[in-house]
Amino acid sequence: MLNGDxxxxxxxxxxxxxxxxxxxxxxxxxxxxxxSRSRSELASRTGLSRAVIxxxxxxxxxxxxxxxxxPGPSTGGRPARQLAFHAVAGHVLVADxxxxxxxxxxxxxxxxxxxxxxxxxxxxxxxxxxxxxxEELFEQLTSTTRGLPGQVWGVGIGVPGPVEFRxxxxxxxxxxxxxxxxxxxxxxAAHYDAPVWVDNxxxxxxxxxxxxxxxxxxxxxxxIKIGTxxxxxxxxxxxxxxxxxxxxxxxxxxxxVDDAAVICRCGNIGCLEALAGGxxxxxxxxxxxxxxxxxxxxxxxxxxxxxxxxxxxxAASFGDPLAVALLQAAGRRVGLMLAxxxxxxxxxxxxxxGGVAQSGDTLLAAIREAVxxxxxxxxxxxxxxxRSSLGGLAGVIGASAMVxxxxxxxxxMSRWLAVGGPAGMPEVALAAAG
Length: 434
Ligand SMILES: [Zn+2]
Description:
alpha/beta, disordered N terminus
């Protein structure tokens, strides 16, 4: 077997040992993502020789990352031994922080949710209060989950604002007062002694839908989240596109009108999200309720003292004409922006997610109509526009996928393989390419 082979793999840049690591990652990806379940499937899918596959599988089994099951059904020759990812070698802690909620989960290394909890929260309370609560919830989950597998192999955090992925720090987030430059990675790394990755909530949502939701099997996808604001996650050519600094997909701040009265929370005028985001829908819905232009919204205002974007969506699903008109106008604006994105990027799928998109079809219909009307025919010939399928769980599923994809990517893996696992190695996160 190849035990003792790891030293040269780590230190060498050009020798054949480099190829050993590349093929090890390739073979593990095939197995852990469920694409190959036997040595013969590995051979036909990767094009590697049977000898190389035997060596890599042997090493992964030795290292406890792959397990060999019973022989599968015989097809005449010697029955093939089934290969499976050892998803319980460790566990992952994830949190998806929204503007008004906290979602936490503990997952296996395959992204399966072992325990989950969510509760209302206010991101404006600042990092100390919000993150102390996340740590309390992690503690509750890990102390009450029976048979928690292994040690903490990684921590994944999503936040509702721009994140510099390399450092894991929020950068000038408009709705997160007190969070600018906050060292989330360092805080969680010190607490859990494991690698930590942080990204914005929309990239996390996109990863979740791509790994386990409606976007499975698509290589070019735009995932739009219409929450309090508006953002996009981009899957390009089979990988999440974060851009040079991590701010790719910030479509909410594309200028769509030249009107000095439309002031965005980012400080600019005429931004899409100042007209069509959840906060804008809530503002316009509340104004209509106060002006007596919608009975349903007026009763929502009476009941809880304010109107939310979800109230508008719900009122529209009951046919309230004012709410329908608000959602149609918002959908049209989002759709026109998306038509430009479609012409520019040519995705095969657009996923619409976020709280507003979950209730009723009015918004989705208006988005579809605008995109198909304004995009080039070649770009829309096979284009699908669908609603997010994972609902509230997409964030934690995506945060887990982010952590595991980073852990099992080339550079991080080259650091922790030699010692068996990434627990106790927070510095592994610094090796990630992004
Ligand atoms: Zn803006």
